[in-house]
Amino acid sequence: MTRRYSSYSDPTSSTSPAPASSTSSAPASSTWLKVQERLGLVQPLTLRIFNTTGGCLEELNEYAVAFHSKLDALLCKLSTEYEGFKYSLGNSYEMTMNVIQNPLPFNFTQVEAACCGAGKLNAESYCTPNTNLCSNRDQYLFWDLFHPSQAASKLAAVSLYYGGPEYVSPINFAQLAEA
Questions:
Q1: Cα angle for residues 96, 12, 148 (degrees, 5° grid)
Q2: pLDDT tens for residues 114-144?
Q3: Residue 31, CA distances (Å) to 35, 38, 59, 102, 179 in order
Q4: pLDDT recorded at residue 34
């Protein structure tokens, strides 16, 4: 019997090593880190407001990379221990960073601020009827302070389903469905 597993797992596992220390002003409690890890292991836009430059908090990026590496090793080990074990592991961090570093090939013109929200980067409040709303939402990577835009979600789905090993491994979701 072939078992199929998706790449989503409880990211609160304590098996990931702690990344190098950082001088960011973000909340440093382990509870806060667990909350943001549960949000997908890619920094919610709202966390960037804690960085004086508005950039990503590198310590949290290191957590995302470490988590993916540990999960990849665990799944690889399980695939050698259990006959017929098939899986696909998506790398949301690499997908997101690729879009942030090269937005135009993906038709994004705004990868720093949210389409809907208020305050710095439109990331200091939730999207409500009284907040700012962009007029070109398909050109934004982020919908609000936590969520990717519909265009970003579609790009992620296509990348996971048909993508190469830089975004999904050891096989993509289409290959997993045929396995």
A1: 25
A2: 999 999 889 888 899 999 999 999 999 999 9
A3: 6, 11, 15, 33, 38
A4: 47
